[in-house]
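Continuing the series of single-chain predictions for the mutant panel. This is the parent chain; the variants come on the following pages.
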Amino acid sequence: MTDARLPLDAAKGLERGPAVTLTLDGRAVTAYEGESVAAVLLAEGEIATRVTAGGSPRGVFCGMGVCWDCLVVVDGIPNTRACVTWVREGMTVQRQDGWRAREEDA
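Parent structure:
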């Protein structure tokens, strides 16, 4: 998978924060300070952030913390909104299945 982030252009003032490493569904990924967990998921090609208890996939919908569709498990805490949670070094993110982390990731 190629990184889906926008290309940088320092001449236009487009820069990223310092790189950090987090664990996404059991694998180490690079993120950048200032990015939301939702941005990292999208950059990694992960469109569905969770599956509802009824089996329907959900993802980033509003992108501003209103709709609650982008729930993930962050550092063991389920129902964390990915779009308003900023990445940090060493954090663990798992996509969610119903009210818990996906079984294959737990």
